[in-house]
Design a protein that fits this description.
The complex is a heterotrimer of chains A (about 260), B (about 270) and C (about 150).
Chain A: H1 2-30, H2 36-51, H3 55-78, H4 86-124, H5 127-133, H6 138-176, H7 181-191, H8 194-222, H9 227-257
Helix pairs in contact in A: 1-6, 2-6, 3-4, 3-6, 4-6, 4-7, 4-8, 4-9, 6-8, 8-9
Chain B: E1 5-16, E2 19-30, E3 34-38, H1 45-53, E4 60-65, E5 68-69, H2 75-82, E6 85-88, H3 100-111, H4 116-129, H5 145-157, E7 163-167, H6 175-192, E8 195-200, H7 203-209, E9 212-217, E10 220-225, H8 227-231, H9 236-243, H10 259-263
Parallel strand pairs in B: 3-8, 3-9, 6-7, 7-8
Antiparallel strand pairs in B: 1-2, 1-4, 4-5, 9-10
Helix pairs in contact in B: 3-4, 3-5, 4-5
Chain C: H1 2-28, E1 39-46, E2 57-60, E3 63-74, E4 79-87, E5 98-103, E6 110-115, E7 131-133, H2 138-146
Parallel strand pairs in C: 2-6, 5-7
Antiparallel strand pairs in C: 1-4, 2-3, 3-4, 5-6
Classes of the chains: A mainly alpha (about 260), B alpha/beta (about 270), C alpha/beta (about 150).
Chain lengths: ~260, ~270, ~150
Amino acid sequence: MMGAIARLGRSGLTAIGALGRSGTFLWRTLGGVPNPRVGTPLLMRQLYSIGVLSLIIVVVSGLFIGMVLGLQGYTILSDYGSEQAIGQMVALTLVRELGPVVTALLFAGRAGSALTAEIGLMKATEQLSSMEMMGVDPLRRVVAPRFWAGFISMPLLAVIFSVVGIWGGMLVAVEWLGVFQGAFWSNMQSAVSFTEDVMNGVIKSVVFGFVCTWIAVFQGYDCVPTSAGISSATTKTVVYSSLAVLGLDFVLTAVMFGGF
Amino acid sequence: MASSPYISFDNVRFSRGAHTIFDGVSLDIPKGLITAIMGPSGTGKTTLLKLIGGQLKPSSGSVIVAGHDVSTLGRKALYDLRENMGMLFQSGALFTDISVFENVAFPLRVHTRLPEEMIRDIVLMKLEAVGLRGTRTMMPSELSGGMTRRVALARSIVMDPELIMYDEPFAGQDPIAMGVLVKMIRDLNSTMGLTSVLVSHDVPESLSICHFACIISDGRIIGQGTPDELREHPSERVQQFLTGQPDGPVPFHYPAPDSSGDWGLGEVSE
Amino acid sequence: MAQRTTEIIVGLFMVAGFVALLFLALQVSGLSLKPAGDTYTVYADFNDAGGLSPRGKVSMAGVSIGRIREITLNPKTFQARVAIDIDAAYSSIPADSSAVIRTSGLLGDQYIDISVGADMEALSDGDDFYETQFAMNLERLITNFASGR
């Protein structure tokens, strides 16, 4: 009995310790002015492997989700004779919620886990250590470019997701189900506000990008440098990122759309 | 041969958690010579190298390298000191995403502003010194284990450091690779005037090339001196380690309960 | 060479992202590129504002000429006071035109349609619509029909 409580306490302290380490880790990664001569090519390479390579899964998922939204939405709306509202339903759902959230979850699964595994492997094969011994700060050289790449890529991916989804919804609604093209767009335009819906969605995806990348990069850096440690860290990245995204989504939605 | 020590450990204590790794270690490592640090597995030999490099700080005592107390150096000063140190990790630790050439050129690109032609010349010269000039365009994944270590060696000398540290360089090497490494360590030390610190548990090879050796066990130095002095050392523990006796001061049997209980022989106590 | 290709692809990726954002801005949310000063405001009082909402469409002869800015309750007359922003390009709407609330489709969104009047004078900033017709309420319609009116 006492043992269980002691274990609980210890795991709580471990968690808080990890949180603290992640804070100083973030501080040291972001602090300082980057050297553009060295930093830009590194950033480019990471933007490619994190952003561009995630495009496929984002576009395909966006397309399918948009089409399902169009289909399901039409079915439900036709009960009320409001099929013409399908445009705004698809657009609002994607732009406000599904765009940022689903993209973040996909990002955590694909790019986040790759980041964690990559950095964890570098730690396990002593590459990070040898960099330190050569007088190069691995946080600046390895971690920071990956962090900025994730932070920049996420909003772009989320916006692309929303657009592809809306297009998919349009395909289903207009081409297949017979909703009028003009009504589809004009209803959407009157219902979707740029500042309130689109920009709030973008803000959400910026926040999600920050959090998901931070978690992914920290888990890789902090992992136990063995193969078991790396796989555990990768799992933690996906789980923690997903939970954080969903939790933050609720908070942000309440703040932005709940009228508080 | 007797000159002021390049590295000096002064009553260093280091513990990780509840586990004390070093308990009052004092050691002088002479300049310009090859020093071997030996001991059973797990005694913290790699930790010793990390203390020299400033990656770890001692709990008490000081580590003086080239006149600087490593544990008190700030970040920038520490990185400057490290430019004068080369370290060869056990696994080579090459950066897997760039080529051999780029790996060796890495410290030059980071610390200097040399023009590309000069970097190319220096890199090729260092690769030639380790006999691998022909591998310059290959990726680390294409190299064998021994070749990886030699490239890593080239990388650690590319800045012409004063100190070079080898972490278990002989572990798991075939006889030819071993011979190559031994030759290179010896040649580098004499041609470049380096101070070399070698951490290993390979007794014959280490003793064959070092000028000075010390044996660490249980967080303390149990013997130090020239190879000849060590071979004559009176301590039983030193002799057990040097000659590889399976049983002696370091026992063969891990502590276990009384055998009569396990095998059911004789009386079983209540 | 590979570095160059990478940079180009990353550049394209970022351009795609910005284009998508632009698409969301213009096509999806109907953000207008015209500066805000190009409208003038007129007011319409309705007995029942029905399903009107801010940013709703205001049209004339089926052509969109402006947007609803806001809907407030006039505390003195207890009517819904709707503020409408009309594009400055349509500056010659006769002063006796009426504002009617219409529904697009049978059960769709409601919008304001302006029926043209005959006056020589035109509506200008701050004017009120002379005549308005309130939203067709479904229950009232059925009641009227059922009672034979």
